[in-house]
Amino acid sequence: MMRDRLEDFALASPGLLLIGLGFLFPIAEMVRLSVVGPDGGFTTLHYTRFLTDAYYLGIVWRTVYLSLLITAICAAVGFPLAYVMARVSPRLRLWLVVLIILPLMTSVVVRTFGWMVLLGRGGLVPSTLWKLGFVGRNFSMMQTEAAIVIGMVQVLLPFTTLSILGVVMKIDRRLEEAARTMGASFMGTLRTVVLPLAMPGILAGSLLAFTLSVSSFVTPSLLGGVRLPVVAASIYDAATKTLEWNFAAAQSVILLVGVLLVLTPYIKLSGRRNG
Amino acid sequence: MLARVSQITATLLLAGVLAAPALAKDKLVINSYGGAYEQIHRKLVIEPFMKQYDVDVQVITAYSADALAQLRAQKASPQFDVIHFSGGQEIVAARDGLISPIKASELSNAKDLYPFAVEGLSRGEGPVHAVAAIGLLYNKDKAPKKPALWADLWDPAYKDHVVLTDLSNSYGLLGFLMLNKVKGGDIKNPEPGFTAVKALLDSAVVVSTSPELQQNFAQNDAWVAPYAQDYAYTLRKAGLPIEFVQGQEGTPGVYLTANLVANRPNQDLAKKFIDFSLSPAVQAGWANELRYSPTNKAAKLDDALAKEVIYGEQAVAGLMRFDPVEVDAARASLVERWKKLIAR
User: Fold this and answer.
1) Contact B344 A227 (CB under 8 A)
2) B220 and A121 in contact by Cβ < 8 A?
3) Which is higher by pLDDT, A265 or A29?
4) Is the pLDDT of residue B186 over 90?
5) Contact B206 A122 (CB under 8 A)
6) Contact assignment for A55 to B208 by CB distance below 8 Å
7) B168: which chain A residues are within 8 Å (Cβ-Cβ)?
8) Which of these CATH numbers, 3.30.300.20, 3.10.450.50, 3.40.190.10, 1.10.8.50, describes B133-251+323-342?
9) Which of A113, A143, A247, B107 has most Cβ atoms within 10 angstroms of its Cβ?
10) Which chain B residues touch A228 with a CB distance below 8 Å?
11) Which residues of B touch A221 (CB under 8 A)?
């Protein structure tokens, strides 16, 4: 018995070491930096500066509601997609999975540049809207919150879809057949049978999408620009542009705590579902 | 075994000692800024210098702020011979005794330099070897007219086609300080600038990096943007019809200096290197390759090239410099104020 534990520990140790060195140690250092004042002593100055300033709270609000919106869209688009993927022939499913995963093979930056071309002044989307008579000629979708949402949904959709797919695949088809025999419509079956059973996947996928989008940096900065700052961009600016490392660390801690706060009820919820 | 190892070590050491005088060339350690700049730096200055004086020059890539930090850390035993700065760090370095004063008489090219380039020598700073001028970039094909003043940014003729650069970018910061000055402010009082920029924001695009500026000129129908002269050249090379105009109210610039590091054994050679950087041929080379303006009056440029840099007494008279120490001290608060202003 003891020996088993030792072996377990030996097996886990490289991973634990990596977590310690690559995660816990930097986090501890970041927490320490966030409370160091200009004179080297302890201070909560950086936190009060962030939490009492309407500008920074505005950034937090933008980050949170954009992330919620992105997550909701990913789940709403991802669920039907995953359902269809689970129900088609294995051959077609393979192609659909490849199709979904393919964008992940290119860097986020490259994909975002693609959106910059499509959404910019004279790009495909604005010029189509212009030809349809909806907007003026020099309309641009760049540097809008809509651009951030579109770009982020494209980046995160594969994560949501694949985590829902995993769960939907395991749902017994006979349950749906039973529901249909009992007189439920197709939509009724989806709503009362498939959706509840797929909930753990939807929750896991949304959780992934939310945490990734709250902390995302490249896509919001490139598509939203400097006039629509999000928390990650604000941290980047403080760390690299104005060299206020302590302030950057404080913002990072706030972001981390915020994500953890969102995670906790989610984990409880999905834990209950799974149990 | 041990005896054998020490024997081998001794032999190697002896060999090293014997071989050293035959191999050793004088060596300088300098910094450069990496990328295209460093390539041109090697081609124009470093390699010709090595050939001419038969010495080695080791290049360490370090931007100005980083270079100053390294210099500070190495104060007890400095590792650089010549240090280049672009953000006014020489003022701090001279004050802290990290760099040695150079006399104008020690530089053969000093007599040909414009006064602004040697002005820092009396304060213990190195000479200015090149200037990146800040002015107005405009699209000559699309803009309805050529801008002449900084104040023209507010001209309704350019409405919806102005691009401003974020203050986290150092060209953006200098451009803003100039707008602020034009509107009656100074570094200590940036309010006139912020108020004036606020009036532009509804119809202007704000970018934070050079590539974004390029994208706006290429795709977003941008007509005018305050930015650096060398970048206008980069845009022209990318096929865009962009010209640079010196705003009549003045031309702020980024001043590139070459400084002599204190407490190094090889200062004579280091001075030769600095002097070499100031030579007319090298400076003409910088203008030709990257459109940095020469600080040496004797640098000969052909007419076409002369139009694309700050060249000649009259143009140079327009050059001005915001006190880098004051700029640095105000940077964080200016950037934060700016971010709050532009955030939607």
Assistant:
1) yes
2) yes
3) A29
4) yes
5) no
6) no
7) 226, 237, 241-242
8) 3.40.190.10
9) A247
10) 343-344
11) 208
Contact yes or no for A242 and B166 at CB 8 A: no
Using a CB-CB distance cutoff of 8 angstroms, which residues of chain A are in contact with residue B340? 55
Per the listing, tokens 């327009």 go with B318
Query: Rounded mean pLDDT of chain A?
Result: 91
User: Which residue in chain A has the smallest CA separation from B165?
Assistant: A226
CATH 3.40.190.10 domain residues, chain B: 24-131+253-320, 133-251+323-342
The reply to whether residue B215 touches residue A123, judged by beta carbons under 8 angstroms, is no
Mean pLDDT of B290-306: 95
Query: Is the predicted pLDDT of residue A139 greater than 90, yes or no?
Result: no
Whether A226 and B340 lie within 8 Å, measured CB to CB: no
* ipTM reported for the complex, 2 dp: 0.82
Q: How far is A154 from chain B (nearest CA, A)?
A: 22
Exposed/middle/buried for A33, CB within 10 Å: 0-12, 13-18, 19+?
Answer: middle
Q: Is the pLDDT of residue B306 over 90?
A: yes
Q: Where are the beta strands (DSSP E) in chain B?
A: 27-32, 56-61, 82-85, 99-100, 128-139, 162-165, 204-207, 224-228, 242-245, 251-261, 319-320
Report chain B's mean pLDDT, rounded to a whole number. Answer: 91
d(CA A97, CA A247): 42
Q: Is A21 exposed, middle or buried (0-12, 13-18, 19+ CB in 10 A)?
A: exposed
* A48-274: CATH, from 1.10.3720.10, 3.30.565.10, 1.10.10.10, 1.25.40.280: 1.10.3720.10
Q: How far apart are CA B219 and CA B213, in angstroms?
A: 10
Please write the tens of the pLDDT for every residue from A9-48: 899 999 999 999 999 999 999 999 999 998 889 999 999 9
User: What residue ranges do the domains of chain A occupy?
Assistant: 48-274
- As a whole-number percent, the residues of chain A with pLDDT over 70 amount to 97
Torsion on CA atoms B207, B213, B218, B224, rounded to nearest 10: 90
Q: Give dist(CA B295, CA B304) in Å, integer.
A: 18
Q: Provide the shortest C-alpha distance from residue B315 to chain A (in Å).
A: 32
Q: Residue B166: pLDDT above 90?
A: yes
**How would DSSP label each residue in B122-153?**
GGTPPPEEEEEEEEEEEETTTSSS---SGGGG
State if pTM tops 0.95. Answer: no
Q: Tell me the nearest-neighbour CA distance from A52 into chain B, angstroms.
A: 14
CATH class of B24-131+253-320: alpha beta
Whole-number pLDDT of residue A275: 43
Give the count of Cβ contacts less than 8 A between chain A and B. Answer: 56
Contact B168 A237 (CB under 8 A): yes
